[in-house]
Amino acid sequence: MNQESLGQIFINACLVNNFVLAYFLGICPFLGVSGKLGTATKMGGAVMFVMLISSMCAYGIHALLVAVDAEFLQLISYIVVIASTVQLVEMFIKKMSPTLFKALGIFLPLITTNCAILGLALFQTNKGYDFIQSIVYALGAGAGFTLALVLIAGFREQLEYAEVPKVIRGTILTLVIAGILSLTFMGFSGLGTQ
Amino acid sequence: MSTGTNHTETKSTDEFIKGLWNENPVFVQVLGMCPVLAVSNTAENALAMGLATAFVLLMSNTLVSLLRNFIPKEVRIASFILIIATFVTITDYAIQAISVDLHKSLGAFISLIVVNCLILSRAEAFASKNTLGKSMMDALGMGLGFLFALFCLGAVREILGNGTFFGLALFPDTFQEWIVMILPAGGFFTLALWLLIFNLIKQRKEATA
Amino acid sequence: MSKEAVKPTSNSFIMLRAMVGIGILCGFLIVVAYEGTLPRVQRLKAEALEAAIFKVIPGITQTKTFMWDGESFVPAKEGDDPRVYAGFDDSGELIGVAIEASGQGYADIIRILYGYDPQKQQIIGFYVLESKETPGLGDKIEKDESFLDNFIAMDVSLTDAGAIANPIVPVKSGAKQNDWEVDGITGATISSRAIGNILAESTALWMPRIFNHTSAFNVEM
Question: C138: number of CA atoms within 13 Å, CB side?
């Protein structure tokens, strides 16, 4: 149903319609963990990983729900499956690779309630992507999320040393930076067309 | 003496008032940011989204409070999410039945009410521990507080960005719209502005106190 | 010993009871809401589409939906794809066919509907079904009158070989000289060019099909 090329999907999800800066998805962790560059990178990695898995799951569930003609259960099954998959993945990583778990571990539960994950699943269904397209879409969205997070974290680390009035420290300052970044990212629009 | 009854009554209205102002979910607790920014580009969208969220909040708080002795602690989060997702799905269909255009402009963000941290946190922190009446009051207060905040953002963005309010033109034709306000960037800026106002008020209060 | 064995079972029984109970309750509520709103939702959606079809094929009073089955057009049933919408006047005469098309715009996918008159071999109407183009700039493709004028009589006539004689090309604002060119919009260059490209691609596919099978639309339903 949808014939976008894979490159187009990736660029669209990553730059043009960046999940954080254009769709405002995943703002909560965005405001929370964007203080330090190191944590931001790890969080980004974890989100990308979960996005990839939940994107595949969402594709499967959607196909199943269409087959049994029960699309009205879409939302409820997405959220349940995503939450339980994250839990499973968490346990699996804990067993298989303690080092990876240490790096990602604390972020995984946080991610379950990240709107970017559910948003991804819903958008890919709305757009009618096939399996490969969904995976590329998830990768692009994850990369875009990481990019936005890392950029903001970089700015915030620098601003630690700037003399900013006390009232606007913290959330307000982050929001203004995000706004400017969002404007900057608008320059990427049109990349998807010839 | 009627102090006893008076006391409980003020209590229950307190739950209502706190959500509106002192613990406003958006301006003070900074919760549920995604829908706040995404669909606040016009006053109408903001109002619809605020009403939908308030409805889901009220219904899920009610049900959670009713079932609070029935749900074991171990599976409470899963149960809450199930309940919330149910009401969000219902709201989604209700909005579709009201207006296709409205549903189109709110898009996937109705479904994303599920992951609005505000709703889950009220269910977990309040409704699962309090009586039905108090939980409903809490939900109403928080819901209206959320609606109020969304409306503040939506109104500012629509007036400046489009020169209209609820679709009615406010300015003469010579008015140059601040297009940036309807763009995503405008959402960030407007929210930052409102937070600044709230912080300033709070600071002044603390200074005089 | 026996105490320890009993405790977890009763505990997990309570958990199971709670989850299943809530699951059933939620499922019931969702189904009720879905069934309750379905007729109205479907009617509203059909009305919105119908209104769009009436807009792109002026002068019609009724529409019918057809599906391309690979060789010709057959009346479409629910969910059939790809489909087109034929518009008729009072006397049942075919006036035009509305076709849906989509493609990459400036910000996201743009979905449009356009009307084709097989007799005049022209595009006679155009409507944006869905776009997320920049408000104030890119969304001029929906409102800008001189841009919409492009699509009142746009030439898509076919050669004898059955291909489009002059494929639709987007040109710079004000540079339009021929009926098959799409005059761009200043400030919305990419969006208006995207529309041109979407149309070029869609017309190359659909015009020969429709032009050669107009009789297929004259069926009683």
Answer: 23
